[in-house]
Write a structure and sequence with these properties.
By secondary structure, this protein is an alpha/beta fold. It is built from ten helices and ten strands.
């Protein structure tokens, strides 16, 4: 589904990513882990067009997407959430989720101004899909609420609903359970497993190792912008380079 080959990203001459290469298999959950500052979010931003990679190749379904703008990559079937919430606080929960269907809303200004029957029918269809996404994440009763008044855990679920409402082929999740309690994390984990069973391919950036070990099919480890390990959760758990990357950070802090 996704193949990265020697992806590099520099900021003012300082390397944030150095020759990162790995593959994301179709229909699987791939977890991307690593210490803080390892380059995980930078890599997600390079994949989705928020940032342009300095060099390297990003293939989606065999097609080169590196260097394309974010909206073009989104139209290809890639969706994402953000490490820091990117909701519209004054819009309703339903309208926030509807923004995830922007690519399917049509591009004709004349049709929008004339309010033709086809467009009204299309809008009703999109609204039904957004309501189904809210129901899937247990937010139906809050569809009319302004997103800004929701609890943090509910805001996280709104982002997940928005990211999945368009039925993307590839879903990139940047720390989807950060800030959630144990019960909320378990619920989100079950929802992610449901997405995998439904045929979605997931690339998951996460620090919660219990969640990673529970739902990931393969794990890729970044440290200081470089890929130091890849394999099944059990293989990565026993990898000495991974233990050194994490435990070394802990010893330095101590």
């Amino acid at each position: 589904m996704l193949q990265l080959m020697s992806v590099c990203k520099n900021f003012g001459g300082l390397p944030a990513l150095g020759h990162v290469s790995f593959q994301v298999p179709h229909g699987r959950v791939t977890a991307l882990i690593g210490p803080n500052g390892a380059g995980k979010s930078t890599l997600i931003n390079c994949i989705t067009g928020v940032l342009s990679a300095t060099s390297g190749s990003v293939l989606f379904k065999g097609k080169e997407i590196a260097g394309q703008p974010a909206h073009a990559i989104s139209r290809l079937g890639i969706s994402r959430t953000f490490q820091n919430l990117r909701l519209f606080p004054r819009l309703s929960v339903l309208d926030n989720v509807l923004t995830g269907l922007t690519c399917e809303g049509g591009q004709s200004m004349a049709m929008a101004m004339l309010r033709l029957p086809y467009l009204r029918h299309r809008e009703r269809q999109l609204k039904l899909r957004a309501l189904e996404a809210l129901d899937r994440f247990g937010l139906s009763d809050k569809s009319s609420w302004p997103a800004g008044v929701l609890a943090y855990g509910d805001k996280k679920r709104v982002e997940l609903a928005r990211a999945t409402v368009g039925q993307p082929d590839l879903l990139l999740l940047d720390e989807p359970v950060a800030g959630l309690n144990g019960e909320e994390t378990f619920v989100v984990g079950e929802q992610l497993k449901h997405l995998r069973r439904a045929g979605h391919t997931l690339l998951l950036v996460e620090h919660d190792m219990d969640l990673v070990m529970r739902i990931a099919d393969q794990v890729v480890v970044l440290d200081s912008g470089r890929c130091i390990a890849a394999g099944t959760p059990e293989e990565v758990r026993r990898n000495p380079l991974v233990l050194e990357a994490y435990l070394g950070r802990m010893e330095a802090v101590a």
